[in-house]
Design a protein that fits this description.
single chain, 447 residues, alpha+beta, D-Maltodextrin-Binding Protein, domain 2, five-stranded mixed β-sheet, 19 helices, 21% strand, signal, SsuA/THI5, ABC transporter substrate-binding protein
Length: 447
């Protein structure tokens, strides 16, 4: 998936002999092979990977260069960012996409081996951190972060999901190293451990929390957006490749922008396409990548994201995965600025769309939006057999979640959804007369 996990530390220790690849793998003078490393199931990188590949936009941009070269794109699919970084520093991958914490390891590894890389664009982001979630088993009695004290919690060390866990625990006064039994596991292993009962909770990144919740194998304990710290995914390129083939990198970034426009204009079709390519349920893909999904897609390297990246360095240093990282020298948006032209300045200041409630009717090519969660419930109530999925934003954080998996609160005539029980109970404590109710009760109250 999108974040570096168990292999991250080992990759930092790979021998220097891994270097030595050509600046452009597979070039023979007239034919240039551009190698792109991506993660098909990391659905917040799809505009630089899965979706981009299926649309063929990069190949079209390369063919339009008119420089007398024949271009071939070698798409290489990986499960995490770690092997992409290893291949990049060996000169075998030119462009790669991964999450923010693996991007930092990518920067550290490139500098260590004398094969520097640069963050050249962003794919998907959430300014509050909602892409990471801590979940428990459906029948778990754990209700708050403090309940995790002494418990076994699975996560992937070196990932933003681990960063969320560390920061969340620190905020409630639990030592993340001594206060819990941390299990350093790949996401799939952690998911199995949660189901088997060998882990009490799982802190992971998109799309695992949504997938497990959708499948009825987990429920949310903590919404990462409560941290109010941005998390994102981005595109990294080798410095030598970028300098030797700037037009090719710009062609990639133009194509990424076009794929972003397609996703934003056709979110249902994009979700179906990604679902078909990855095997993930389209309903889960849409939760993150939909019109009002948890992730916002924009290639611009926003200052808020760079600032967040700098704060992430401390987490990796504490885990002894990296030393100091010069984030400013790692970030290089000159190529995406040129690729996007006059639009770039506007993109830098653009804000994510306001959260909204949505229903995906069965057989429909478009979703239906509602002004409030209560209105959505009223629709669901009268169309029970015609609903493919229903989504509502957390009343506190705005994080989108499945309506039937949310924690509901009745506050007078208002019906308010929350991702996690702690945020729901906090709202109740601050609003006299409000109380937590079941989803069935919420549906019953809807008009």
């Amino acid at each position: 998936m999108k974040r570096t996990a168990v292999a991250a530390a080992a990759l930092l220790l790979l021998p220097l002999t891994a270097c030595g690849g050509n600046a452009v793998a597979g070039s023979d003078g007239s034919t240039v092979t551009v190698t792109v490393g991506y993660q098909s199931k990391t659905i917040n990188t799809v505009t630089a990977g899965t979706l981009l590949r299926s649309l063929g936009y990069f190949e079209k941009e390369l063919n339009a260069l008119g420089d007398g070269k024949h271009y071939k794109v070698d798409w290489q699919d990986y499960a995490t960012g770690a092997p992409i970084t290893a291949q990049m520093t060996a000169g075998k991958i030119d462009i790669g996409s991964m999450g923010d914490f693996p991007l930092l390891i990518n920067a550290a590894r490139g500098k260590q081996l004398g094969r520097p890389t640069h963050l050249v664009s962003v794919t998907g982001y959430n300014l509050r951190g909602g892409l990471n979630t801590i979940v428990t088993s459906p029948d778990s009695k754990l209700a708050t972060l403090t309940d995790l004290k002494g418990k076994k919690v699975s996560t992937s060390v070196g990932s933003a999901a681990d960063g969320t866990l560390v920061r969340a625990l620190q905020r409630v006064g639990i030592d993340p190293d001594k206060g819990i039994q941390k299990l350093n596991q790949q996401p799939a292993v952690g998911a199995s451990a949660l189901s088997a009962g060998s882990a009490d909770a799982l802190s992971q990144f998109v799309a695992w929390p949504g997938l497990l919740t959708f499948q009825g194998k987990a429920k949310a304990l903590y919404d990462g957006a409560q941290l109010n710290l941005p998390t994102f995914h981005g595109v990294t390129a080798r410095e030598d490749f970028a300098k030797q083939r700037p037009a090719v990198l710009e062609a990639f970034l133009k194509a990424q922008s076009q794929a972003t426009d397609f996703l934003n204009a056709h979110p249902v079709a994009a979700a179906e396409s990604v679902a078909k390519a990855t095997g993930l349920p389209a309903e889960v893909v849409y939760l993150y990548n939909g019109a009002h999904g948890i992730s916002t897609f924009d290639p611009a390297v926003k200052p808020q994201l760079v600032s967040a990246l700098k704060k992430d360095v401390a987490v990796l240093k504490s885990a002894k995965l990296t030393g100091d990282i010069d984030v400013d020298s790692f970030v290089d948006d000159q190529y995406v600025r040129k690729a996007l032209g006059a639009d770039y300045a506007q993109r830098l200041t653009a804000t994510p769309p306001a959260s909204a409630s949505e229903v995906w009717p069965k057989g429909a090519e478009k979703t239906v939006s509602f002004k409030s969660p209560a209105e959505l419930l009223g629709y669901v109530k009268t169309h029970k057999d015609g609903i493919r999925a229903a989504y509502v934003p957390d009343a506190t954080t705005g994080t989108l979640w499945f309506a039937d998996k949310a924690v509901w609160v009745a506050d007078g005539s208002r019906l308010l959804p929350f991702v996690a029980p702690a945020t729901a109970t906090a709202y109740v404590a601050a609003h006299g007369g409000a109380r937590v109710i079941t989803y069935a009760d919420a549906l019953g109250r809807a008009s």
